[in-house]
Automatic annotation (TrEMBL):
Residues 16-318 form the DUS-like FMN-binding domain. This is tRNA-dihydrouridine synthase. It comes from the Bacteria. CDD domains: DUS_like_FMN. Its EC number is 1.3.1.-. Its cofactor is FMN.
Length: 330
C-alpha cells in the first residue's frame, strides 16, 4: 500500500534521506536521488536566520525540480518566528515543511529549539499548530524518543501533534541525552504504530546501515518507511541496495571503484555548480574518505585529494584512483 503525506504519494515503504547539516545540501541530495532516495529534506534551517534574511539560511532554501518530493526543515524556539519562517520557506516551493524537534546539540537544544521542545510538550504543540496554520503545505515533524531515559514521551507527542494537523512523523530511536551514542531502540516507535489513534505515517530512523537490517527492522517494527542518515554519507548506494534487497531478498553487488569515482565526480561537479569553484572544491574534501572507505592504501590518495587546489588536479587524482583500483569491488 502506498504511503501518503497529504497529496504526496511516496509509494510502498519509502526510503527517506535524513536532513543532515553540512551534508544533505543540493549536491549530496543529487547523488542520493540518483540512487533511489524516495524523499529528501534540506539541512535544518534556522527560523531566526530566515527572518533576518541571513545569506547562509536563505541559500539553504534552494531546491530543484528533480528533487521532488522534498521538504524544507526549520527549527527555532520562538513560536511567532517559526510561523514567519514557515511563510518564508513556503515561498521557496517545497512539497512539504518539516519541523526539527530532535537536534541534540547544545547550541540548538540549549537555546530552546530542536530536542529541547521535548521538555515542553504544550509549547511544542502550540508551535506545531502555528506552523501548520502558516502554510498550505503538509507539515511533518522529526523528533526523538524523549529528552532522557526518564521522559520518553514520544507516544504522547505523536498523538498531540497528529491532533494539530501534522501529516507524518519521523522518530529517531534515541533520547536527547543519548546524543548519537548507544544503539537506537525502535520499540517505542512500534508502540506508536500500534496505537489505533495514530493514522499518519510513522517513519523509523536511527542506525539503518545495511539492507539486511533494513529488512529485519521493517518486519520487526512495523513502520511505514525509513529514514537513513549516516549510512548514506559517501555511500548513496545504500538506497538502491536496500530497495533491491526488499524486492528480491538478495544483496546487490556493491559499487565498483569506477562507480565510486563517477559518483564522486558528479558530487564534485554539483558542488561546484551550487557553491562556486573554490568553495565547491574545498567542501568536497570532507567526502573523499567516505566515498573510498575500505579501499586498501587509499590514504595517500586521500591526502592528495584534500590538498589539491584546482579542479584539474582533483580530476587527475580521481582518474589515477580509477585506474589503479579498476575492477575492484570493495
Ligand atoms: C552530520 C549530521 C548532521 C545532522 N543534521 C541534522 C539536521 O539538520 N536535522 C535533523 O533533523 N537531524 C540531523 N541529524 C540527525 C539525522 O537526521 C538522523 O536523525 C541521525 O543521524 C540518525 O540516523 P542515522 O543513524 O541513519 O544516521 C544530523 C546527523 C548528522 C550525523
Amino acid at each position: 500500500m502506498s504511503v501518503r503525506i497529504g497529496n504526496i504519494d511516496l509509494g510502498e515503504f519509502p526510503l527517506l534521506l535524513a536532513p543532515m547539516e553540512d551534508v544533505s545540501d543540493p549536491p549530496f541530495r543529487y547523488v542520493c536521488k540518483q540512487n533511489g532516495a524516495d524523499m529528501m529534506y534540506t539541512e535544518f534551517i534556522s527560523s531566526e536566520g530566515l527572518i533576518r534574511d541571513a545569506a547562509k539560511s536563505i541559500k539553504k532554501l534552494d531546491i530543484f525540480e528533480y528533487e521532488r518530493p522534498i521538504g524544507i526543515q526549520i527549527f527555532g524556539s520562538d513560536i511567532e518566528h517559526m510561523r514567519e519562517a514557515t511563510e518564508i520557506a513556503t515561498q521557496a516551493g517545497p512539497d512539504l515543511m518539516d519541523i526539527n524537534y530532535g537536534c541534540p546539540v547544545k547550541q540548538v537544544a540549549c537555546r530552546g529549539a530542536g530536542a529541547s521542545l521535548l521538555q515542553d510538550i504544550d509549547k511544542m504543540v502550540a508551535m506545531t499548530k502555528a506552523v501548520v496554520e502558516a502554510t498550505h503545505l503538509p507539515v511533518t515533524v522529526k523528533t526523538r524518543l524523549g529528552w532522557n531515559d526518564d521522559t520518553k514521551n514520544v507516544y504522547e507527542v505523536a498523538e498531540r501533534l497528529q491532533d494539530v494537523g501534522i501529516k507524518a512523523l519521523t522518530i529517531h530511536g534515541r533520547t536527547r541525552a543519548q546524543m548519537y551514542k548507544g544503539v537506537a531502540d525502535w520499540s517505542l516507535i512500534r508502540d506508536i504504530k500500534r496505537n489505533p489513534r495514530i493514522q499518519i505515517p510513522i517513519f523509523g530512523n536511527g542506525d539503518i546501515d545495511s539492507p539486511q537490517k533494513a529488512a529485519n527492522w521493517r518486519l520487526e517494527y512495523e513502520v511505514d518507511g525509513m529514514m537513513i542518515g549516516r549510512a548514506s554519507i559517501g555511500y548513496p548506494w545504500i538506497f538502491r541496495e536496500v530497495k533491491h534487497f526488499f524486492r528480491t531478498g538478495e544483496f546487490l553487488e556493491g559499487p565498483t571503484v569506477a562507480e565510486r569515482v563517477e559518483v564522486c565526480r558528479t558530487h564534485l561537479e554539483k558542488s561546484i555548480e551550487w557553491k562556486g569553484l573554490k568553495t565547491g572544491i574545498f567542501e568536497m574534501r570532507r567526502h573523499y574518505s567516505n566515498y573510498f572507505k575500505g579501499i586498501n592504501h587509499f590514504k595517500e590518495y586521500r591526502m592528495r585529494l584534500v590538498t589539491a587546489a584546482t579542479l584539474d588536479e582533483v580530476q587527475d587524482i580521481l582518474s589515477e584512483v580509477e585506474l589503479k583500483y579498476s575492477a575492484e569491488v570493495v
